[in-house]
Design a protein that fits this description.
Layout (H helix, E strand, L loop, with lengths): L7 E4 L6 E4 L7 H14 L8 E2 L2 H8 L3 H13 L3 E2 L6 E3 L28 E3 L11 H11 L14 H15 L8 E4 L1 H13 L5 E6 L3 H9 L3 E8 L2 E2 L8 E6 L13 H13 L3 E5 L15 H4 L5 E6 L11 E4 L5 H12 L4 H12 L2 H30 L4 E2 L7 E5 L6 H10 L2 E5 L12 E5 L8 H13 L1
Parallel strand pairs: 6-17, 8-9, 8-11, 11-12, 12-13
Antiparallel strand pairs: 1-2, 3-5, 4-5, 7-14, 9-10, 13-14, 15-16, 16-18, 17-18
The structure holds pyridoxal-5'-phosphate.
Length: 476
């Protein structure tokens, strides 16, 4: 990023394309370069097979960090515009979407897994600590599951024994009262959300999502051709009065809003249910991490308050155990349960059987309860340490603020006005600290600069050093 105030401009080799970096648009440098390149490829101004400059070279030419260019290239690779990233250069993909057919997904940062070298300190949100995974017990449950050879194709909703176990579990933990047949075991929460969107949304339908919110769902809705509308979140959660009246589906994270951490108030919950009933809309309640509650009691889930079968409740084992298991579930209202199951069967027939059997034993034999009691203590302590660190940073002026949270494995902080989020994350990365992007949580073009700080996956012993390193970056 330039400090001189001039606009940086560069021409890609063997093409008439010019890229610009306007220093006045400091917060959106990555998006701006991404859009210029994407537009150039989609419109054919850069030809198929053209080689793009190496990331380091382009970064130097434009006066931005190499991280910015890597982020842009990775995003365009993920969307199919570019190919051949590793080692041999980056080329415009022969199969890259051209303008006539291109409907690129909305702007999100590339998935966290795009780090070539794992960061020294991982403060990205989304994952629990692999060191806390109950490997020995899980191995035993898997061994028991494999005492019997896996059977053939089965129920698209999952194994009955697991569905019964989950129904019983969420009755105790969340007060829901589903019948076992309403539980559909899925490949993580994401598949449950995917199936719900396919079932309920036609191209052009309005889907309301939280702003800021969980980017993969916003992207998924856009990929289905939905008209995605960002609805602001305030201290009481999703601002129901701002949902467009024509919305067909509302996606929300009421127990612990992602990423802000606010809890949706009871009046808002009731207003949302009333909205859904009045406007013939449906609600996805994504309860992705409420098992990790550090303070206060949880409010009743929306689905428990719902009298009109408008809420699809979605939950996952990605936070409590591991995202690598790819196990989650939906509690599907009866009126469209059969269609939901039929669609699931068309997509991938059923969940993997041995994992389901293992999970069923794991929960029924009390291991999940024990695991949660053990890990809650660990994460609550990390939550305390990070909260204390953020309070100090706000007091010293290196952060503008943060929303104190009562649950989950991440906290979102807001940087001082005028700060460049991309620059802060890039400098943190250079110092060995990977942090979650706040900008990617927004549909709006110029979001406030912030950081999403995860404390799930970093081992306890590393947390103080990671925060020390982050503190240096924030005060520089
Ligand atoms: C808001 C939200 N929903 C759902 C998920 C979990 O997705 P999955 O169960 O597909 O791993 C995440 C993971 O980071 C999340 O942040």
């Amino acid at each position: 990023m330039t400090n001189s105030g001039e606009v940086h401009q560069t021409k890609l080799p063997a093409s008439p394309l010019e890229l610009f970096v306007d220093p006045d648009a400091r917060r959106s440098t990555t998006r701006s370069i991404y859009r210029q390149l994407r537009e150039a490829i989609a419109s054919g101004r850069v030809s198929v097979g053209d080689r793009l400059p190496p990331t380091r070279e382009l970064a130097t030419q434009l006066g931005v960090s190499r991280h910015t260019i890597t982020t842009v290239y990775d995003q365009l690779v993920a969307e199919g515009y570019l190919g051949g990233r590793r080692g041999g250069g980056t080329f415009v993909n022969p199969a890259s979407p051209r303008r006539s057919t291109a409907r690129p997904l909305s702007d999100v940062s590339p998935p966290a897994a795009h780090f070539d070298v794992p960061p020294r300190f991982d403060l990205r949100p989304g994952a629990p600590d692999p060191g806390l995974f109950p490997t020995v017990v899980w191995r035993r449950c898997m061994a028991t599951a494999l005492l019997r050879a896996p059977r053939a194709y089965g129920d698209p909703g999952g194994l009955l024994e697991l569905r019964e176990t989950i129904a019983h579990w969420i009755n105790r933990s969340r007060g829901l009262e589903p019948t076992a047949d309403q539980i559909v075991v899925t490949s993580g929460a994401q598949q449950a959300i995917d199936l719900t969107i396919r079932l309920l949304v036609k191209p052009g339908d309005i889907v309301a999502v939280e702003e800021p919110g969980y980017a993969p769902v916003r992207q998924l809705c856009a990929a289905f051709g939905a008209d995605v509308r960002a609805v602001p979140v305030d201290a009481e959660g999703l601002m129901v009065e701002r949902i467009p009246t024509g919305a067909r589906l509302v996606y929300t994270t009421p127990a612990h809003q992602f990423p802000s951490g606010v809890v949706m108030s009871l009046p808002r919950r009731l207003a949302l249910l009333e909205f859904a009933e009045r406007h013939d809309a449906f609600v996805i309640e994504d309860d992705y991490d409420s098992e990790y509650r550090h303070v206060a009691r949880p409010l009743e889930p929306l689905q428990r308050l719902d009298r009109n079968e408008r809420v699809i409740y979605v939950d996952t084992f990605s936070k409590t155990l591991s995202p690598a298991l790819r196990l989650g579930f939906a509690v599907v209202p009866h009126p469209f349960l059969d269609q939901f199951l039929a669609l699931r069967q068309l997509c991938d027939w059923q969940p993997a059987e041995p994992q389901q059997t293992a999970m069923s034993h794991f929960i029924a034999d009390g291991h999940l309860g024990r695991h949660l009691r053990r890990t809650r203590k660990v994460y609550s302590e990390r939550h305390r340490v990070v909260t204390e660190f953020l309070s100090g940073a706000v007091q010293s002026g290196s952060l503008r603020g943060f929303t104190p949270t009562c649950a989950g494995l991440h906290i979102t902080a807001v940087l001082p006005d005028g700060a460049d989020e991309e620059d802060v994350r890039s400098r943190a990365e250079e110092a060995g600290v990977a942090i979650g992007a706040f900008a990617s949580c927004w549909q709006a073009d110029n979001p406030p600069p912030g950081l999403v700080i995860g404390f799930g996956s970093i081992p306890d012993g590393d947390l103080p050093s990671a925060l020390d390193a982050l503190s240096l970056v924030l005060t520089r």
